[in-house]
Amino acid sequence: MESIVVLGGGLAAASVVSELRERGYSGKLTLISDETDLPYERPPLSKGFLQGKEEPADFIVHDSTWYSEHGVTLRLGVAGISIEAEQQRVLLADGDSVSYDHLVLATGSRASLGKEAPIAGYDLPGVHVLRTLNDAKSLREDITEGTQVAVVGSGWIGMEVAASARQSGARVTVYSPTDVPLSKVFGERFGNYLLELHQRHGVDVRTARVQGIEQADGHLQVYSDAGSSRADVVILAMGAVP
User: Fold this and answer.
1) Judging by beta carbons within 10 Å of its beta carbon (0-12, 13-18, 19+), is residue 225 exposed, middle or buried?
2) DSSP E strands: which ranges in 112-201?
3) Ramachandran assignment for 90, one of left (phi > 0), alpha (psi -120 to 50 degrees), beta (any other)
4) Does the reported pTM lie above 0.90?
5) Is the dihedral of CA 142, 161, 179, 117 positive or negative?
6) Residue 138 near residue 169, CB atoms below 8 Å
7) Strand order in the sheet with 233-236
8) What are 175-191's pLDDT values in tens digits?
9) What is the 3-state secondary structure (H, E, C) of 33-68?
10) Taking Cα atoms as reference points, which of 202, 124, 207, 115 lies closest to residue 162?
11) Rounded (10°) CA dihedral 132, 133, 136, 141
C-alpha cells in the first residue's frame, strides 16, 4: 500500500492530510510532529489564548476522533531528525523510523534569536519566544497584573503580545528597531496608527536595539542603545527562520 508521511504539526500539515482524504487518497497516511498537541492554528497564541479567552480546543484543526476515523496515524511528541532519501524513510528522535513513498515537509519556522548570533541572555529564566503552544502556556503563566514585560521586536508577534499583556494588566515596554512599527511592511500611515494605538493603551514603545539581557537581584535587566531597564519577563519577537 502506498504511504505518505507528513512532517509538521501546524495548519499546513493538518490541511495536507485533510485534503488528501477529501480528494480520495486511500493509502497509508502518517503525521509526525515534535509537539505533543494535536495540530493547531498558531495566530490565537499571541491573542485569544494569551489573553485567557481561548483554549487549545478552540483552535485545533481536528480533534483526535477525526484522525482515527480518517485513518491518519499520529506520531506526536517525537521529532524527525533525518531523511534517508535513498531508502525513503524518516529517522525519528526516539530511534524509530517511518518509511514513505511520498514525504511532505510542513515544518514551518522557529523563532529567531538574533540575526547573526543569539542575543546574549536568550536562555535565561523569564526570557521567552512565542512559536508553539507550550511557549504560549509558559508565557501566559508568567504575565500577570503588574508584571513588567519587555518585548524585543515590533513585528506582528511583538505588537500582539504587547497588546495582550496590557489587557492582562502588565506594564509593557516594546523595543522597536524602527521608529514606526511595521512601516516597512504596511507603510508609515498604518504603522503610525498602530504605534499611537499601543501608546494610548499605555505601551511604552522605544526606538532602540537590544544588545543583551542579564539577570540581577531576582529580575532581568535589558540593555539597549537607549540605556537599560528592568523587566520580570522578556519576549524575543525578532522574527522567524525556516
Assistant:
1) exposed
2) 127-128, 148-152, 171-176
3) beta
4) no
5) positive
6) no
7) 127-128, 233-236, 148-152, 171-176, 204-207
8) 999 999 888 888 899 99
9) ECCCCCCECCHHHHCCCCCCCCCHHHHECCCHHHHH
10) 202
11) -140
